[in-house]
Each structure stands twice: as C-alpha cells, then as structure tokens.
Amino acid sequence: MTPSSNAPLTDRPARSNNHPYIPSTDSERAEMLSAIGVDSLEDLIADIPPEHRHPRLNLAPGLSEQELAAEFSSIAAENSSSSNGYISFLGAGAYRHYIPSTVRSILQRGEFVTAYTPYQPEAAQGTLQVGFEFQTAVCQLTGMEVANAGMYDGPTAFAEACLMAARLTKRSKVGVISTSDTRLLETLVAYSKYQDVELVEVEPDAVEIPADLACVGIQNPNFFGQIEDVERLTKLAHENGALSVVHVNPTALGMFRSPGEFDVDIVTAEGQPLGVPLAFGGPYVGLFACKKSHVRQMPGRIIGRTTDTRGRIGYALTLQTREQHIRRERATSNICTSTQLIALMVAAFVATLGKQGMKDLANLCYQKAHYAAAAIDRLPGFTLGRAGNDDSNGSGATFFHEFVVRCPGSPGAINSALLKKKIIGGLDIFDRVDNGMLVCVTEASSKADIDRFVAALGEIGASQ
Amino acid sequence: MYPDDLKYSKEHEWVRVDGNIAEIGVTVFAQDSLGDVVFVELPEVGTKIRQFDKFGEIESVKAVSDLYSPVGGTVIEVNSNTVDSPETVNDDPYGRGWLIKVELADIGQLDALMDSETYESSLE
Amino acid sequence: MTIVANPGDIDRRLLMDRSVPGRRAFTLPESDVPAQEMPDSSLLRDDLELPEVSQLDVIRYFSVLSQLNFSIDTNFYPLGSCTMKYNPKINDELASLPGLADIHPLQPDETVQGALRLLTSLQDDLGEITGLPGVSLAPLAGAQGEYAGLLIARAYHESRNDAGRTVAIIPDSAHGTNPASAAMAGLDVVTVRSDDSGNVDVEDLRELADDRTAVFMLTIPSTLGLFEPNILEITKIIHDTGGLVYADGANLNALLGLVKLGDLGVDICHSNLHKTFSTPHGGGGPGSGPVMVSNELAKFLPKPVARKTENGYVLATPESSIGAINGFHGSFSIAARAYAYIKALGLEGLRSVSENAIIGANYIQAGLRDKYNLAADRYCMHETVLSATRQKKRGVAGLDIAKRLLDFGIHAPTMYFPMIVDEALMVEPTESESKETLDHFIAVMRQIDDEINSNPELVHGAPHDLPVTRLDEAKAARKPILRWTADE
After folding, report:
1. Contacts of A93 (CB under 8 A, 6+ apart)
2. What is the pLDDT along chain A (464 residues), one digit of tens a residue?
3. Closest CA relative to residue A147, chosen from A253, A18, A12, A279
4. What is the rounded CA–CA span in Å between residue C152 and residue C291?
5. Is residue B1 part of a domain?
6. Which of B61, B85, B87 has the CB atom closest to C473's CB atom?
7. What is the rounded distance in angstroms from the CA atom of residue C267 to the CA atom of residue C134?
8. Torsion angle, CA of B49/B52/B58/B60, rounded to 10 degrees?
9. What is the nearest CA distance from C34 to chain B, expressed in angstroms?
10. What is the total count of domains within chain B?
11. pTM
12. Fewer CB within 10 A of the end CB, N or C, for chain C?
C-alpha cells in the first residue's frame, strides 16, 4: 500500500463526487429520483431491515489510477519471476512458454474482452466463430471428432470426463492410473463426492482391470513426464466394457500420436500451455473432446454452425438442453461458462503457430528437456527416473519435456539453495519419489539457462 | 387436431390401438408447445414399461420434456425415422411422427385415458 | 468476372479455408542445444492438420471477427442478472504486469509474497463487504463457488453427526445453476413458491423446512430484482430447524455498503467477480466465484486460502477443508482485477455503485411502466423485470422485442428468466450508464411498443442490420456441425 492511501479520509483533500466509473452527477440523480417519485434512495431500499442498513465497513478510501498503478508495481516487485532475473524449471500442470505478439494483440480487442456469453447469436458472431475455431483446433490436436467450447481448467475437465464416462456406462467405479497427478485426483474426488462414484487405482502396466469400471483415466504424458501406452490401456478398457479417458499435454500433441488414433473415448487437457500466461494458476481453460456418439453427454457449452433466415452461414450455441439453465438438477454439469476469453487465446495461439509451429514447439521442448536431463544425469549423485537410472519401471522410458531427477539430498533443501542463485528449481515430489524432483524444460529456457541450472545443481549436490 | 380414433393422456401422449398393439406419439398440443423438435430419445426394443412411466425424452432447442407411456407393455418397435429426422414429430405427429409401438399388457388400462373430446376440453 | 462492391459482405471463411501450404505466422528459434535422440517413430504422429496462414491473416481474421460482436466497450448491455458494467482498462493492464502474469502456481510462498498479499487483502475486503469473514478465492466461477458452498454446508452437518440433512430448498425463481449444483452435491431439490409480490412464500417455506433441510439457497436480491422483505424471518426459520442459509451473490451489485449478508443471517455466499467487481465477461468466462462463510464455517473452506503469518504470507489449507475443487489457486489474474477495482473505488465508491445501480433500474422501471407490465409492481433494487404480456396479446413476443433492440445497437435484456414470469424481460442498467443512455433506452423501448401497432413485421423480423438475421437453431441442433471439416 502506498503511504498516501493509508492516510485517514479526513486528511485527504476533498474530491469531486463523481468517480470515473460512475457518470451520474448529483443533479442527474435528483432528476431521476424525482421521475421515480421518491425523495431519496432510502425510499427505494425500504425492504432492507433498517437496523442492518448502511453498516460500518472497514475499507480504505479509493485510489486514483496513478496510485493504483504504483500499488501494483510494488506487488509485482515482491514476486520472483523472469521479469526480475529468475529462471524457473517448474511444470507439473502449468508450463512456461513464449506467448506470441499476435495473441497478446488480439487479447486487447475490447469487443472480445467485454462481450457477454453469446445467448444473442446475432450480436455475438465474433465470439461464436472464435469458439468454433477453438473446437476445431482441439479436435485437430487431439484427433477427436467433437469438442466443447472450453471448461474451467484441465483438472475439472478430467473430473467431468470421468463422471461423463460413469453416466455413459451406467457404472460407478472410475479407474485412474497410478502415475497421474494428484491434482487431477483431488479435483475428481471433490466433483464425485456425492455422485456415488468410487475411485480405483489402476497400475499403468496392468494386464487386467476390474470388469465393472466405467473408465480408465490415463494421464499422458503422466505426472512424471513419461509417455504411457495409451493404445494398450484403451484396448484393455474396451475389452472390459469401460471407456478410455485420456488427459494430455497439448504441446506434446505437436509430435506424439494423438489419442484419436488409439480409439480413445474422451480426451481432456489443460489448455494453458497454448498461449496462456502462468498467472499464478489461472484463469486457464480445460480442453474437452470426445467421440461424436457421446456428444449428448458432454458437459459445457457447444457451438454449432447453421444458417440465418437469408441462408447466410452463422454460429450459435447448440445442444443447450444438456445444460443447467434448461435441465436444472438433471443437467450434465452445473458449468455455465466456456472460459471463452482463454479459449480465444488458445485459438489465436494455434492459428499463429500453425502446423509447422506446433511441430517445432514440441520438438524444441523435447530437445531442450533431453539435453538438460542428460546433463543432470552426468552430475555425481544425481540420477534420472523414478527408480534411479532404472527406466524399466513399467511406464515406458520415453519422456516429453518433464522428467524425474533423484537428488543426493532433500529436494527442498536443494531448491532453497538454488533460490539464492535466482533459480526456481523443479517441483519437490519427495512424497511420491524418494528425493525426487520433477524438472520441466520448455523452449522458454535457453541453453545458457539450462547450463546455469545444471552447474548450480552440481555445486549444491557436491556440498550435500 | 385430435383424431377421434385415439386415446389421450394428460401428459399429452396419444395411443392408437390395433389388436393388442399400441402405437404411441405426442399430440399436436405437445409438439406445438415444445416448438421445433430437435432430438428424440427412445427406449430399446424389448424394454418393459409400465403405464404412465417415463419411456424417453423429447427436446426442442430450449426445452426438454419426459415422455410418459399412456399404456404399459413391451416395446416391440421404435420409430427410427423420428430419431434421425426429429422434425417429423412436428410435421406429422399422428402419422409418420409416431414414437414407439408397445405390445399391450392390459387393454383395460385404456380406460384411464381420455377420448378426443375430453382431452381437447382439458386443454382450455 | 466482375467484382461487385458489397461493403456489408463479410468473409466468414474459417482459418482452414484460408490455409495455404507453406505460409507461416510465426517462427520459433533454432534449437541451441545439440541434437538429441528422437523417440521411436512408432510413437510419433504424421497426421497433424492445422492452418497455415500469414501473421497479417491471423490479425485481420480475429480483428474482423471482433467487429461482429456487441460488447460493453461498444454497446449498452442492459442484461439482467449479468451486471454488464464498465470493465476498467487499468485492471487488465495491471493484471498483465510481468511480475503477476509470469509467476508459476507452484513457486515457493517466499517467492510470491506480492501475489499472496494481494489475495489476502482481497479476501479481507470481500469478507468485510459481505459480513462473512471466511473467504476462499479458489472457485473458478459462480457455479463452482456455489458447489463449494454446498460442500461446506454438507461438511458442516456431517461434522455434527447430522448427515441426514440431504435437502436443498430453492425458490421457484432461482437460476438453473442452483438446482444443478445441489444435485452435484447429492442434495434433493425442494422448490419453495414465490408469492404474488415476488417474495418467498414464508408459510410455504415454514412447511418445507425440517430436520432434513441442509441448506436454503436464496438469491438476494431475488432474480426479480427485489429485496426479500422477510429476510430476517426466513433466516430464522431455517436456523431454527438446524439448516444453513446460502445466498447466491449473483446480485451483490445492489448491496455494496448498503447491507451485509452476514448481518441478515446468511451463513454462506458466493460472489461473481465478473459481475459486481467489474472483471471482464470475456464472451463467456473466465469467471471467478469466491465463496464467503461465517467464522464457524471457515475451517471447511476449499483450499487454498491466503493468510498472513509471522513469517510472511502463505497459502494454507483450512483444517477441515472440503479439499481442492480445481487445479491450482483459482483465477488469480481475475482476482487481481477485482482487487484493483475495490481499491480504485474504496468505501465511498462502492456505496455509490449500488446507489446508482438502484436508482438507474428504478428510473427505467418508472419510464416504462405505463407501456410494459412489471413482474412485481414495487420499487426494485438494481434490476427490473418487465413482462411483455400486453405486447404478446398484440402478437409480438418478448423475444421479438429483445431482437428488435439489437437493431438500435442495444443488447437484448435477459429473456424468459425468471421462469415464473411470463414473457420476462429482465433489465439491469448498472451504475456505469449515464442518464442519457437510460433515456435513450426508455425511448427505444417505447418506440418498439408503438411499432407493434404500426409495423409489427419490423419487430417480428428483427434484427435486420446485424451480421446475421435470426439463425436456424433447430437445424444446428438436429444435425450438429461442431468443427471445420475438409469436405464441406
């Protein structure tokens, strides 16, 4: 808080009554009250119990725009990020990538930013066509037939997908592979708590699964960054009458085979890596795609193509009877947003990178992560893989842009030492892997950044 | 609007009986209040339903209604034409827009339904 | 071939239809590390199909599309229950500062002290405004806040070995998310009637409330834009049976500084930051739906909550938390915008928001009541619900009036909601709009009423001058086309 804004109200010079966000002047308010036929606002709020009207509120006086900007500068300066010289190797569900100027520029269009949900399609063709582009991009990346216009984030999309599988199969046990992110599971637990759904852990190398599962949920790459055998697990699921639900990293789809190739039923993803700032965890957007035959059980907004009374092409929300505003307690979900603005960023990002850019991006991430992993593996005391240099742990050795490092000591202590060197290390996953650190390297890290990180790890490791 | 040879339920379904086979659909009133029908969900052949039980759903752009069977019995045929082209329900509700055929469990159940005149006056 | 000038003709081709092999809008840097061994080729795809367009193609495509939209920046948006107020530009700018946009959600607390200070301060302010001091900013939208609130109610009852409370009582005027969220939380929905003046039927409620009542969900002001005059009696009825009172905060814009929900006996509420606190609607999200509870319920809040400790700010998990309801900590950059909004307005500014919102809605109501029926003939709060039943008798539906407004550059009001009002047109002007804008709206609405007599086809066929006329939504739903495909 800037010093001036802490001063008591009385010490501040009197301001004009009008706030920049509120146009009505005193005389206009008086005119309106007189047209309404009352003397004061009090007559309009007479239904509020008088003893509770106009309570005391402990809030600071308003700030000018300039004071506000100063306050935010100081808040931003209290954070450590690339803008004040830090380099970071955190991933685990949120990924640092370069955001092209086109995405940032398109996001400045107030016509997109300040529009409402497109219930009046005639007045929202821009938003709707962008949503249609987003659905198309999600289908193309995942190889799936249909997609919705967006969910809140990756984990909520995954949770809704598992619940959808339970509805479709009329089964109540949801299987999820044990190499998944606990954040996916926690959200699924919160979403299914009162849904009569039981969670079952499935090992990724399982050769048989319970015969009464609604689905097998597969995170791919898994939490540890490794590529899972989606094809085999999907077959196994189908043989048992279960569906296959795959949660992907969309960046990886620039190089690895898509779930659509493996006959997967529902695909979800965290959309953040596609042009969305990290922003301390949100807002992001969940991607959600499925087979066409399942579309009526899909949650969320869906945009469809049609024609107007003059035969011109137009877009509108469609299949709305699935949703809460019509089906109420029997809706497929209570969601009423498509996180459209973030979906716009994703659509603009995919359009900008295009076919070649998405391939190049995936390849760069892969190359840099593998360079970093090999360099760390050469450090004394550090080994790769969940079981320590043993990649035959049943989950396949191939990784994309994240990998597990087993450290010579506590990853927490190593991270504290790294922080002194302005390096934010990988995620401490000691609770899942002994002395494990989950390291992520994307195209946003230069070779120099990686070398600095590796050198620092070597130094700190030697002193353990 | 409401043919004399049909029986009607208060949920706006009609039934046409031929021997022990009952053909079931929705009335002009029902399709009119729904608006453009866009989706019909019907049971599988062989499903047993009781009188006045829900047997499916019918949707317009902005509304969804449950379908209740005016009679009980076993579903012997569903009209795939209305599933593929839901507008048939609007275009010809008593003809090509029929929904299911049921083998009647008890012909006496018809007594619980309305004739055309009673149904029409119930709409006022 | 002759090219005919047609300025109104808009190129609606999709990106894939503009794609030319070899075109690029962006290049990534060359790899600066030695080439690494590639994965087995059986793992790699060769089917990726995406647009190939130039950078100008991308910018022009999205810019032209944006011009097909109505938005607050360009149009008056009297959309009831949605609070389409001005979205201050400074908020977007500040939330995008590198030190806020670039921080990773899993960074150690010590490296995000600024962010945590912001979240703590926003929690405090929202607790103060609502009188419900336990706050979690985790919910990603109003519907999530609502779901979190219901999980809290259930956790509270279970903690008291009172788990048999499985009923949510909801007014017939409620928004559809209320029953949808209640169903997700495993609660049976029981509907309480509204009386002729639009209030909760207190006697009906008294009948319905019992030892199975987990929670009563009340929108306040109601979806009719009315403040519930029996609120103290209602909260007492529910509390006497051991239930909790949940307030849907969708309409908080009417209450800022005028009354605290906590003072009225409300135990839990959520607020939509994208309504009352000016964060952009974005064409349908992202939202943010913080959940606020009484001190007694604070230990059940979803994780995380930000807290100030001796060692600085931390993200904490409340002791009996209902857990995580999404991936990380909520919509941080939306919270940052709301924080900026509250700080910019301050105490006096926030009061002024609600006062002006209420006066504006009543002014519109007064200007139209001789032409349009009111859902409830009394003073409203921040929105008024008109009923186009008189117009309907003359052959024009509420829908037609709403569509006709579009021709005047005014967004349609919320239509056919609440469902208990025939031909409902719900109008919420917000405090952002000037008296001239309200006068213009009143004049247009009166003119449309006249047009029903003089030229009904003008109203039936509306809108006439937008990028598209009315769309065939039945066709869209019967044979859904939900993505670009090559063969179209």
Report:
1. A154, A155, A181, A183, A270, C105, C106, C327, C328
2. 333 334 444 444 444 568 999 999 999 999 999 999 999 999 999 999 999 999 999 999 999 999 999 999 999 999 999 989 999 999 999 999 999 999 999 999 999 999 999 999 999 999 999 999 999 999 999 999 999 999 999 999 999 999 999 999 999 999 999 999 999 999 999 999 999 899 999 999 999 999 999 999 999 999 999 999 999 999 999 999 999 999 999 999 999 999 999 999 999 999 999 999 999 999 999 999 999 999 999 999 999 999 999 999 999 999 988 877 777 777 788 888 889 999 999 999 999 999 999 999 999 999 999 999 999 999 999 999 876 444 444 334 799 999 999 999 999 999 999 999 999 999 999 999 999 999 999 999 999 999 999 999 999 998 87
3. A253
4. 10
5. no
6. B61
7. 10
8. 180
9. 57
10. 1
11. 0.95
12. N
Q: How many residues does chain C have?
A: 488
Question: How close is the nearest chain A Cα to the Cα of C394, in Å?
Answer: 23
In a domain, B120, yes or no: no
Interface of A with B in 310-329 (CB under 8 A): 320-321, 326-327
Provide Rg for chain A, Cα atoms: 26
Q: Do A327 and C65 make contact, defined as CB atoms within 8 angstroms?
A: no
Distance (Å, rounded) from C-alpha C356 to C-alpha A163? Answer: 44
The enclosing domain of B95 has a CATH number of 2.40.50.100
Q: What is the CA radius of gyration of chain B?
A: 13
Chain A nearest-CA distance from C82, in A, is: 8
Complex ipTM: 0.97
From the candidates A90, A112, A116, which should be mutated to test the interface with C, based on the most C CB atoms within 10 A?
A116
Query: For residue B38, which residues of chain C lie inside 8 Å, CB to CB?
Result: 474, 477-478
Using the CB atoms, write b or e for C212-236: b if 16+ within 10 Å: bbbbbbbbbbbbbbbbbbbbeebbe
**Is B19 contained in some domain?**
yes
Given the DSSP bridges, would you call strands B48-49 and B73-78 parallel, antiparallel or unpaired?
antiparallel
CB pairs under 8 A between A and B: 14
Q: Minimal Cα–Cα distance from A7 to chain B, Å?
A: 55
Name the residue among C184, C65, C2, B94 with its Cα closest to residue A106. Answer: C65
* Cα nearest neighbour of B38 on chain A: A319
Looking at the domain covering C354-473, what would its CATH class be? alpha beta
CB burial class (10 A; 0-12, 13-18, 19+) of residue A245? buried
Assess if residue B112 is contained within a domain. no
- Which residue from B minimizes the CA distance to A331? B64
* DSSP-assigned beta bridge partners for residue C213: C167
Domains of chain A: 3-73 (no CATH), 83-97+355-462 (3.90.1150.10), 106-346 (3.40.640.10)
Which of the residues B41, B59, B61, B89 would you substitute to probe the C interface, choosing the one with the greatest number of C C-beta atoms within 10 Å?
A: B61
CA dihedral of residues C450, C452, C457, C463 (deg, nearest 10): 70
| Residue A122 and residue C468 in contact, taking contact as beta carbons nearer than 8 Å | yes
Q: C90-345 in CATH: which number?
A: 3.40.640.10
Whether B62 and A321 lie within 8 Å, measured CB to CB: yes
Q: Where are the alpha helices (DSSP H) in C301-434?
A: 332-368, 389-393, 398-407
Domain ranges of chain C: 90-345, 354-473
Give partners of C (≥3 CB pairs < 8 A): A, B
Name which of B36, B61, B62, B83 to mutate to probe chain A: the one with the most chain A Cβ atoms within 10 A of its Cβ: B61
CA-nearest of B46, B71, B66 to B56 is B66
Q: Which among C343, C284, C340, C275 is positioned nearest to C97, based on CA atoms?
A: C340
- Is A320–B63 a contact, with Cβ atoms under 8 angstroms apart? no
Q: In whole angstroms, what is the distance from residue C103 CA to residue C119 CA?
A: 14
Phi-psi region of A425 (alpha: psi -120 to 50; beta: other; left: phi over 0): beta
